[in-house]
Amino acid sequence: MKLEDLSKIGTKSVKLLNNLGIYSVDDLIRNYPYRFDVLKKRDINDNRFYDNFVSDGVVLSDPVLSFFRKKMNRLTFRCNVQNKLVKVTIFNRAFLKNSIIPGKTITIIGKYNPKTETITASNIILRDLLNGFEIIPIYHLCKGISTKQMSNYINTALLSSKIKNNIPDELINKYDFISEDEALKIIHNPKDEISLKKALKTLKYEELFTYMKNVRLLKQKNEEHNPLYIKKIDDEKIESFIKSLPFELTLDQKSVITQMLQDLKSDTKMNRLLQGDVGSGKTVVAFVLAYACYTANYQSALMAPTEILAVQHYENALRLFKDTDFKIALLTGKMKAKEKKEIYEKLINGEINFLIGTHALISDDVSWDNLGLVITDEQHRFGVNQRLRLKNKSVSPDVLMMSATPIPRTYALTIYGDTDVSSIKNLPKGRKKVITYVKKTSELKSVLEGIYNALKNGNQAYVISAMIEENEDTDYTNVYDLKHKFELAFKNYSVEILHGKMTPEEKDKIMNDYINKKINILISTTVIEVGIDAPNATVMVIFDADRFGLSTLHQLRGRVGRNNIQSYCYLISDKDKERLRIMEEENDGYKISEADFKLRGQGDLFGNRQSGALSFKLSDVRRDYDLLVKVRDDVNCYFKKEFQ
Ligand code: ADP
Ligand code: MG
Fold first, then answer.
1. Residue 285 CA: which ligand is closest?
2. Ligand 2: distance of its center to the CA of 278 in Å?
């Protein structure tokens, strides 16, 4: 069912939901809260410091709005909380100003200091607290959709859909799960912690069950491979394309290409994971494979996790294939309906040989003439699900998944079913090792000098912080603070920020400005895209480096050192020196991942969650690996019985 078919949702809201990655009623229902705020009324007369104070109260004074630094603001007002007069402050919620009116009852969540009788609120809800206890689901939102609206949309969707159990009854009974219909209702409208836990347990299992079922289904489909394909690949054409490249392929690139061409020519389907450290040159390998398919008259798709990466791949492909008759097109969610329609038509008519894009590639509207190969970049999970969604006149396509995050073979086998793994181990010639320093916060001056030198030479810098906003619970740096500090330190340069709470459009704009050198210093959380190529950036500074796993640090560091100029990476931390020192010595992603594994048990094998790699909505492959294995066994056992 389409979102447009729901009564209460207008076209404008549909667009906003699309921006959040929600395209269907099912997407909406499965748009799970990413966190739950448990609100339990506290007694203010305890006279205690509370980090998580919650109470309703009556507003006594009009709020005063003040701005400070750039883009920061603060609302302050007085409130009667349980007959005590307190001063309430909340940061960066200027939009609440007109809703906080004297006489109104509101609920305040935040930090209470009994000495000063002040509350620094992290959230304010514009109504009283029901029964003194509530669980509030918190969703990813965007400008134009509030928590309340999101909640309403989801409940409308829940009412108008029939939800069947994906988990077979037998397993529901075995594990004492509740029905999925009930679980979904609870997760979006939680009343108490016990039932919420049960609902989460059910839905998490369901998520992995559905996934593993698909892995199994694909394994069965893998048997059919179109034999016509095999004979038609034109090695000569491929060879001449490789000769036309502006650089010579590395030995590893050549050998993985040979290996994969054999896959294409063999009579079993290709399902291969190509691992290669950041900057090792996986993209061009993907291009060669896509071109090989084309010589056999098959279409290929390359799917990237973000719009910017998709555009970057597209522009690269246009440049490298300019002397061939390989027809390349771009499809992203942001394109106008008319442009998309044109692409759909050309695709089904076979007038496009290679389509590069985002998730838009697996939209229901896309049909292929004869899709032979699907390549996914840095977005492993789709390797499995997308193939089941691709509408294709020919048989199901070969699959190549590319990743810079090395994972152990056993993990790969569980997650992808039967997967072959190839690796590119060496970087292209001429690359200089990124020189890495671990620095204490007291040594910041030398770091700033490093940045200054790079900017002076016309190069750019990335500065990474773990947090977006100030959070009184920690003394970690945050993006907004750093922006302020860097603007003071680098007066003649442009400093911008990038973080996950910005809209996709805002993020794209900033990234593009950075790639086009309009920004000198980019201050960002770890959202800076895996895979993005801004070769002019030569300095990477990571604050509170101890907060990150080594593999994540390595990924972040991989954003620099992408040309032949010497690049630098500064890891700033007063803790955890020993572990961070590994980064000073080691530049090899595999070795770093191994070291991380030894030091931290599971380590940081899958990079950080934000990168989208291998993260499900509720589960996390790293954290829930044992459950995944159990689910795989359950799936195999269940379907074996079913086919008997
Ligand atoms: P990744 O494996 O991280 O996706 P990319 O494919 O983005 O790496 O390649 C990084 C950069 O290296 C690109 O600018 C690409 O053009 C360049 N490159 C790829 N292969 C070679 C090579 N054999 N010699 C020199 N440069 C190369
Ligand atoms: Mg890449």
1. 1
2. 7
The alpha carbon of residue 175 and the mean position of all alpha carbons in its chain are separated, in whole angstroms, by 31
- Residue nearest ligand 1's atom 4 by CA: 282
Contacts of 621 (CB under 8 A, 6+ apart): 411, 415, 606, 614, 615, 628
531 lines ligand 1 (CB under 6 A): yes
pLDDT in tens, 199-234: 999 999 999 999 888 888 777 666 566 655 666 899
368 CA to centre of ligand 1 in angstroms:
29
Taking the chain, what is the end-to-end CA distance rounded to the nearest angstrom?
34
DSSP for 265-324 reads HSSS--EEEEEE-TTS-HHHHHHHHHHHHHHTT-EEEEE-SSHHHHHHHHHHHHHHTTTS
Does any ligand 1 atom lie closer than 6 A to the CB of residue 63?
no
Q: What's the CA-to-centroid distance between 275 and ligand 1, angstroms?
A: 14
Inter-helix orientation angle 180-188/147-159, to 10°: 160
pTM (predicted TM-score): 0.72
Distance CA 495, CA 487 (A): 6
41 contacts 55 by C-beta, under 8 angstroms: yes
What residue type is 525 in one-letter code? T
Task: Give 309 Cα–ligand 2 centroid separation in angstroms.
Answer: 8
Q: Is the dihedral of CA 93, 96, 102, 106 positive or negative?
A: negative
Instruction: Report the 10 Å Cβ neighbour count for 442.
Output: 7
Widest distance between CA atoms in the chain: 85
Q: In the predicted model, is pLDDT for residue 607 greater than 60?
A: no
Q: What is the residue-wise DSSP string for 25-55?
A: HHHHHT---SEEEEEE---GGG---EEEEEE
Could you tell me if 223 and 251 are in contact, meaning their C-beta atoms sit under 8 angstroms apart? Answer: no
